[in-house]
């Protein structure tokens, strides 16, 4: 039975965002009738975020990083500090609706629930930004760009992954997986990786269409990194994900696929940053091997762990027939 929710809120120079959206977070938590705590992990901000929080929300527990280590590292610090049965991973640019949690607690009555998320709408026009994700293939590559929106009456609709912006997760299961894999630092793909590891363990990630929240956008990333740097990290981490999750016998063919169908075409179009993505993948190979070994360790401990292909098939089989496809996310 759930009695407490621990909110883990990473922050980097987000003073204005905290002022705008923290009151909505408190309201949504208070409406659950449960105990709650908010753990703010500051990733070496240079603004007055911490001073403002201490003055206006003294009940919030603060962890201050001395260096900027990125999203996954900050979240892991908060996860280890959390004491609730459920951990809610929340971005500072998310505005929760008052009833956000009320439709989600029921999922944790199911023994195999890893976590659940709600709809993320664009704050400017209330259009759907992130719905329930559908897996699809391009060769050996798993794509996460298709999504669907189930009817509110749908029973336990699945999603390929839980967005790190608004994921409510079983803390014990989260700790079993070790939280986010920090190989993806500073950002991108760590939430996909975490959710796939959960699916491989036999747990499920759900999407609750009645839970709504609004997203300002990746403001902290965009303000601190150039467009080319963001693309470089995004594509590097997509490669890292596949290097970790594909079966050993698939890696050789996969390397050929990414070189000839991802790296080379972009390079011919003058997108030089893709070379840095590829170089970054190679530099991270020792950490990638460690992540693969960690998954193997879980497989040995649990005696069985699903392949990426088996996870895809399972998710597709669970999608409610009344759902409708919302298209490819730009």
UniProtKB/TrEMBL annotation:
* SUPFAM superfamilies for the chain: Nucleotide-diphospho-sugar transferases
Which ranges carry the Glycosyltransferase 2-like domain? 6-174
The UniProt entry, under CDD domains, shows: GT_2_like_c
Q: Does the keyword Glycosyltransferase apply?
A: yes
Signal peptide per UniProt: none
Superkingdom of source: Bacteria
**InterPro entries in alphabetical order:** Glyco_trans_2-like (IPR001173), Nucleotide-diphossugar_trans (IPR029044)
Key words of the record: Glycosyltransferase, Transferase
Q: PANTHER family annotated for this entry?
A: GALACTOFURANOSYLTRANSFERASE GLFT2 (PTHR43179:SF12), RHAMNOSYLTRANSFERASE WBBL (PTHR43179)
Q: Which family does it belong to?
A: Belongs to the glycosyltransferase 2 family.
Q: What is this protein called?
A: Glycosyltransferase 2-like domain-containing protein
Please tell me the species this chain comes from.
Algoriphagus confluentis
Q: What is the lineage of its organism?
A: Bacteria, Pseudomonadati, Bacteroidota, Cytophagia, Cytophagales
């Amino acid at each position: 039975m759930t009695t407490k929710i621990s909110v883990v809120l990473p922050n980097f120079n987000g003073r204005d965002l905290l002022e705008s959206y923290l009151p909505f977070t408190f309201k949504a938590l208070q409406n659950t009738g449960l105990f709650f705590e908010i753990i703010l992990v500051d990733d070496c901000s240079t603004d007055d975020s911490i001073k403002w929080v201490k003055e206006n929300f003294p009940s919030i527990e603060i962890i201050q990083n001395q260096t900027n280590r990125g999203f996954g590292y900050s979240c892991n610090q908060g996860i280890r500090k959390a004491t609730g049965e459920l951990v809610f991973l929340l971005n500072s640019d998310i505005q929760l609706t008052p009833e956000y949690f009320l439709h989600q607690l029921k999922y944790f009555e199911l023994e195999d629930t890893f976590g659940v998320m709600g709809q993320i709408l664009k704050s400017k026009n209330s259009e759907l930004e992130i719905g329930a994700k559908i897996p699809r293939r391009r060769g050996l590559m798993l794509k996460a760009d298709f999504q669907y929106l189930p009817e509110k009456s749908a029973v336990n609709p699945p999603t390929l992954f839980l967005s790190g912006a608004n994921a409510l997760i079983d803390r014990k299961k989260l700790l079993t997986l070790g939280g986010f894999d920090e190989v993806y630092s500073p950002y991108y793909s760590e939430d996909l990786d975490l959710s796939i590891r959960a699916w491989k363990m036999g747990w499920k990630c759900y999407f609750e269409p009645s839970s709504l929240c609004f997203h300002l956008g990746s403001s902290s990333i965009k303000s601190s990194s150039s467009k080319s740097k963001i693309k470089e990290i995004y594509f590097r981490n997509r490669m890292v994900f596949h290097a970790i999750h594909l079966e050993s016998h698939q890696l050789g063919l996969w390397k050929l696929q990414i070189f000839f169908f991802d790296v080379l075409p972009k390079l011919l179009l003058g997108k030089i940053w893709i070379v840095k993505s590829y170089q970054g993948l190679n530099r991270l190979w020792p950490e990638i091997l460690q992540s693969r070994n960690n998954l193997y360790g879980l497989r040995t401990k649990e005696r069985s762990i699903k392949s990426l292909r088996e996870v895809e098939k399972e998710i597709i089989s669970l999608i409610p027939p009344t759902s409708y496809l919302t298209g490819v996310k730009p």
